[in-house]
Amino acid sequence: MTLGEESLRLHKKLNGKIATKVLIPIKDKHTLSLVYTPGVGEVSKVIASDINKVYDYTIKGHTVAIVSDGSAVLGLGNIGPEAALPVMEGKAALFKTFANLDAFPICLATQDVAEIVKTVGYLAPVFGAINLEDISAPRCFAAEEQLQDLGIPVMHDDQHGTAAVVLAGLLNASKVAGKEMKNLKVVVCGAGAAGFAITQRLISEVREIVVVDSQGIIHTDRNDLNEYKKLIARKTNRNKIVGGLKDALLGADVFVGVSKGGLFLPEYIKLMATRSIIFAMANPIPEIMPDLAKKAGAFIIATGRSDFSNQINNSLAFPGIFKGALQARAIRITGEMKQAAARAIAGLVPNPTIDKIIPDPFEKGLVDAVSKAVAQAWKG
Q: Which of helix, strand or coil describes residue 257?
């Protein structure tokens, strides 16, 4: 039985992966009167007089909405809200398992940014935070930007969770390789949601970044760039090189792939600097398989897969980021909070090695370390 077949059987047996839970058994009229009418009316009056009391008396302070339109689900593409539902359920299960946060999938039957923003605004009173998920670029950028003044944290995890873990992994990989972060030349292959956020997260950390999309190296003279790629062009590729991936890789210390499987050929390793670092994160097939990269001379190799060492997985970041933001009663998740999360993750591997630059999602103390760092970084 394949993993996919086993997963199908499990989901059919359980009819999903999450359920609601009543915190107090309702076995008599007195309890019924406490949790519902007439007793609950007193709770509503308290909240009506001070809206912030909603955090003390309801689920809001520990509840996250996982909002998707089904337009960019895993490696499956635009498969729609119903097909996205099992993935969002899985995300909710991870929130509960790792951070003890109650999350619920909200899969929307629209892919219009204005409608998504409006709908999330209508839902906001119930939830303490919003996790945007699997919304295609560039619409995901616009939706997240427009929701930053909602009054509760809103984060597109495909962007920022991934970027935080990439930074964490690179902080440790550079130590193992004996290279200073500030001196690294990094090539980011892929300029979608994850590629854009990774680039933004690394700009202040490394010497040089060159971003490559499906049409080649991004630079200011290209006339086919959307507004977000124009922003990338203005902040990267300071030497204004042109061409494709091979041209970008000349002398590069790091390759970060968030693109397509098999895109990085073994011979490309020889174009890079010595002790090269490869983060091949396309799923389920990486840009280059670890055995091929190692054979070709790569020094450190990471992927997005759990069956290889050095898994770069956003599950290392998002539970702690959201937990910390909720604990701090933050109204948004700032760049400083994301940087703090990355450094907390990296710090859990004090003595990194070639095969251990990043903790795994079950690392003891991971969520507590990240949430504490994130809460302390909030300057509201």
A: strand
Q: Residue 76: its pLDDT value, please? A: 84
Q: 242 is written with which tokens?
A: 């042109």
Angle between helices 318-327 and 81-99 (to 10 degrees): 70
Widest pairwise Cα distance in the chain? 75
Residues 147 and 240 grouped into a single domain: no
| 36 given a catalytic annotation | yes
- Which one is catalytic: 36, 118, 182, 246? 36
Specify the pTM. Answer: 0.93
Number of domains in the chain: 2
Q: Indicate which residue of 60, 91, 185, 229 is catalytic.
A: 91
**Peptide bond preceding 38: is omega within 30 degrees of 0, i.e. cis?**
yes
Please list the alpha-helical segments (H only) found in 256-349. Answer: 290-295, 318-327, 335-347
The CA distance from 137 to 229, in Å, is: 11
Tokens (6 digits) for 243: 């061409």
Quote the tokens at residue 251.
């002398």
Q: What pLDDT, on a 0 to 100 scale, did the predictor assign at position 3?
A: 81
Which domain-ending residue is among 107, 139, 156? Answer: 156
CA of residue 217 relative to chain centroid, distance: 24
Integer Cα distance of 247 and 29 in angstroms: 74
Beta carbons of 269 and 315 less than 8 angstroms apart: no
Question: How high is the pLDDT of residue 380?
Answer: 67
Q: Which residues of the chain have pLDDT under 50?
A: none
- CA-CA-CA-CA torsion sign (177, 179, 182, 184): negative
Q: Are residues 273 and 162 in the same domain?
A: yes
Instruction: Give the burial string for 49-64 (b: 16+ CB within 10 Å, else e).
Output: eeeeebeeebebbbbb
CB 317 within 8 A of CB 161: yes
> What are the pLDDT digits (tens) for 168-192?
999 999 999 999 999 999 999 999 9
Q: What pLDDT digit, counting tens, does each position of 195-215 carry?
A: 999 999 999 999 999 999 999
Q: Which residue range(s) make up the domain with 112?
A: 3-156
Q: Angle, to 10 degrees, between the axis of helix 157-177 and the axis of helix 318-327? A: 110
What pLDDT does residue 307 have?
A: 87
